[in-house]
């Protein structure tokens, strides 16, 4: 099992203590980043381990290693010696660890560390390429040192190499991590990497800018990602997409695992290449994943079997690993219709004339469900031939965003559904139906949920329409995903308890 180490990047020791107290419940040890302290404060670092009350790592990170220390090497070594200097017979008052870079060859520091019971972390922050396993072994000068390798992954291939090396590294004490957005999964799955600890940072604070990209805060790591419960047998699920800067799915699945006492974790895997993601998935034995933009169509060519809905819609948003390969499902479609029917308080769409704006992947799922529920639809799209193609598949009518299309909309206006991406953050000024004037009688659904109300939806609400955004659909589809991941029925009471 790995430990959560809070990186203290505050400007003063008092501020760092505040951060530590804020996250103490979720923190096993702390790293005092002396390079982030105001120069005056650096004279008092020796007091910090006693103030902290948890084991503390003494670190003075140079600029070349991503830190803030701009003084000369002489003054850094002096500071490190002052930090290590033996002050009390009680070892708990000493730094528990000191981070010394691999190229820092100062025997007196190592000797001081040994004498005062401070364990050396031998670190490398600029590893470009080569054999990760061999590098880890080389880093340790003496047996009880902890080798630390931090990589900036250029692609998923680098992540795969890290997980592979970790699998082959045996039980050598090590700290292994990948930085940046791409590497966040290595911070969550530190136990899988056999990493002695995982660094967490302070967030939403002025002092946080000194921290590392890709870091989570200790509470997120511990509570949301169930860090302290991740072990050898933990089942791994996740979400892939690109750029995947924001996803609410981990906040949906992980609390469900906790509530249901399931030893599993759900992790984001931003991936620009599906092929690489699937290789990574094999390496870490990922059991299942949500698949999101832009991979929902491309994933189909990598499946060994797929549900009828995937075939029909031509998009897949859920994959499960089987001994012979990946099986694909589409839960967006049912998520959409569950959400719409609840909104309308209906069991089907029989006798309902509705408009679908858009003719892309999301529109295909929506059209297939409208057809299944016996609704009659008009499909309106910027690129008219795509609207025609989709409409023909189900015997629907079609149009463009022009006077003719808008006139048709007036006849198909009981329910209007926006499936286009127009109006989504950051382009929240866009309105796909701007030529259409709402009468106030329409029920209007927008699949977008950021912003909560698109311009299109605001206009509809202002005209007196009932409106619904896409967040409910997201939850409804995730219920089906959870069901598929777990292989058992979804418990709606749990969702109610979670306030989702
Ligand atoms: P998704 O899988 O989210 O549906 P997609 O398959 O790329 O994504 O489809 C995007 C849809 O939004 C398309 O219908 C697109 O119209 P075009 O087919 O003409 O490209 C529509 N769309 C995107 N931006 C739009 C805009 N600014 N105004 C109107 N429609 C837009």
Tell me which ligands are bound. Answer: 2'-monophosphoadenosine-5'-diphosphate
Determine the strand fraction and express it as a percent band: 15-25%
How many separate helices? Answer: 18
Strand adjacency order, main sheet: 7-6-5-4-3-2-1-8
Short descriptors:
35% helix, binds 2'-monophosphoadenosine-5'-diphosphate, TIM Barrel, single chain, Rossmann fold, alpha/beta, 500 residues
Polypeptide structure, described:
This protein is an alpha/beta fold and 500 residues long. The chain has 3 domains: 3-232, Alpha-Beta Barrel (TIM Barrel); 249-330 and 476-497, Leucine Dehydrogenase, chain A, domain 1 (Rossmann fold, 3-Layer(aba) Sandwich), CATH 3.40.50.10860; 344-469, Rossmann fold, CATH 3.40.50. 35% of the residues lie in helices and 19% in strands. It has 18 helices and 20 strands. Helix 3 (73-84) runs parallel beside helix 4, helix 12 (332-344) packs across helix 13 (361-372) and helix 12 (332-344) packs across helix 17 (471-486). The two termini are 31 Å apart. 46% of the residues are buried. The mean pLDDT is 93. Bound molecules: 2'-monophosphoadenosine-5'-diphosphate.
